[in-house]
Amino acid sequence: MASGGLQLLGFVMAFLGWIGIIISTAMPQWKMASYAGDNIVTAQALYEGLWMSCAMQSTGQIQCKVYDSLLKLESSLQATRALMVASILVGLVGVFVAVTGMKCMKCMEDDQVKKMRMAVFGGVIFIISGLAALVATSWYGNRVARAFYDPFTPVNTRFEFGSALFIGWAAASLALLGGSFLCCSCPRRETSYPPTRGYPKNASSTGKDYV
Hints:
This protein has helices at about 1-25, 75-100, 110-150, 165-185, and strands at about 30-35, 45-50, 50-55, 60-65, 160. The protein is α+β, with helices and mostly antiparallel strands. The radius of gyration is 29 Å and the shape is elongated. The chain starts with a helix and ends in a 27-residue tail after the last helix. InterPro entries: Claudin (IPR006187), Claudin1 (IPR003548), Claudin_CS (IPR017974), PMP22/EMP/MP20/Claudin (IPR004031).
């Protein structure tokens, strides 16, 4: 029962992490314009994401522009895109594999060993998905931080971490933790001992004595 509860908890956490990775990938707030300099007065907030850049006016109106050409983008941004998309696809495979191995599902009930291995394999896939998302978000965040502290970067063009980065970090952590719980939900094999053989019963006396 304890392993089943840990398995269910791990799957829920990993699934929520996978959903968070999708949300983070689609959001345009990967970095936002910084207003840390002096005498900077602006009526709009600028955001940049993996797929588009947006400007939000003081009236609340948002205008977004999708990046025109893939080849004109920086190689680091293309790599971040690829890692996040790969994380989503790998996580999708992990969902199907882990669901097949869940104890609450009736699939593969006739072979509990294979069912258990499927759950563990699903956990490993979720860990790979979380690692890909963690590398992508950390790499992007490192680029933003380096550009912010670069003295040659103009103050008006500096960016800070956006909300999508924090969601991506939290989602990757959930996927890693949930996948680890799925891997740890496999119960340990108990040492099996051969069945004890009973002693043969004495033959009942027939009441006849032989000389």
